[in-house]
Amino acid sequence: MPQHIGIVACSAEGAALCYRTICVEGPALLGAAHAHPEVSLHTHSLADYMQRIYRGDWQGVGELMLLAADKLAKAGAQFLICPDNTIHQALPWVLPRSPLPWLHIAQVVAERASAQGFRRLGLSGTRWLLESEVYPQKLAALGLEHVVPEAAEREEMNRIIMHELVCGVFRPEAVDFFQRVFGRMKGEGCDAVVLGCTEIPLVMSDANSPLPVLDSTRLLARAALRRAAGA
């Protein structure tokens, strides 16, 4: 029997894409039509997370994640994933007290980038993520370089994510913006870009990006599938 996956969700669109990827891609890994591991998902109100994020209370974010982890453990989950890059900043407070092990989204992405031979990655995501060590630490451990958007780009990226993408609003202007930023990163020597907000893959992909993309949402879902299946 595959292991039971617990999803500690934060924003709806990214969590839904992660859950859907697990279910849709499960049959190919498990070898049976419609098969996928058992999945349980818990999320607090996004407003509860954002109140803590806006005041920089990452320990408070971690407390919410721990409450979700406890509920998922009681539901039978055997390991946890969080399809939200930003709140991975709280994992240092979470891991020592967690009832279950976690897969780290940035570790999954870094390992995939290294396996594909990329060496210099552009990062995208919320301003909180881009000003954190969530990705730099994991990338540096594998000898990977990174480039972050400029300050004005970070603010506009954050606005698009928080006021459009997490609300299910997908505009052509957002695609144009990401293409310009990714194109500039390509000019700075990046050979791939991390879609480091789990909603960005809803508007950007290899089909429309100037750089190859590392889709953190789907990469995390696939890593969870492999772990659940013992592959």
- Give the helix level as a range of percent: 40-55%
Q: In CATH terms, what is the fold-level topology of the largest domain?
A: Rossmann fold
Strand order of the largest sheet: 5-4-6-7
Give the name of the CATH architecture of the largest domain: 3-Layer(aba) Sandwich
Q: Radius of gyration, Cα only, in angstroms?
A: 17 Å
Distance between the termini: 12 Å
Structure in words:
- This protein has 231 residues and is of the alpha/beta class.
- The protein has 2 domains: 5-104 and 219-229, Rossmann fold (3-Layer(aba) Sandwich), CATH 3.40.50; 105-216, Rossmann fold (3-Layer(aba) Sandwich).
- Helix content is 50%, strand content 12%.
- It has a 4-stranded parallel sheet, sandwiched between helices. A 3-stranded parallel sheet has the order 2-1-3, with helices on both faces.
- The protein starts with a strand and ends with a helix.
Brief account:
The chain has 231 residues and is of the alpha/beta class. It has helices at 12-30, 46-54, 58-74, 91-94, 105-115, 127-130, 134-141, 151-163, 172-187, 216-229; strands at residues 5-9, 39-43, 79-81, 120-124, 145-147, 192-195, 213-215.
Per-chain topology:
Blueprint (H helix, E strand, L loop, with lengths): L4 E5 L2 H19 L8 E5 L2 H9 L3 H17 L4 E3 L9 H4 L10 H11 L4 E5 L2 H4 L3 H8 L3 E3 L3 H13 L8 H16 L4 E4 L17 E3 H14 L2
Parallel strand pairs: 1-2, 1-3, 4-5, 4-6, 6-7
Helix pairs in contact: 1-10, 2-3, 5-7, 5-10
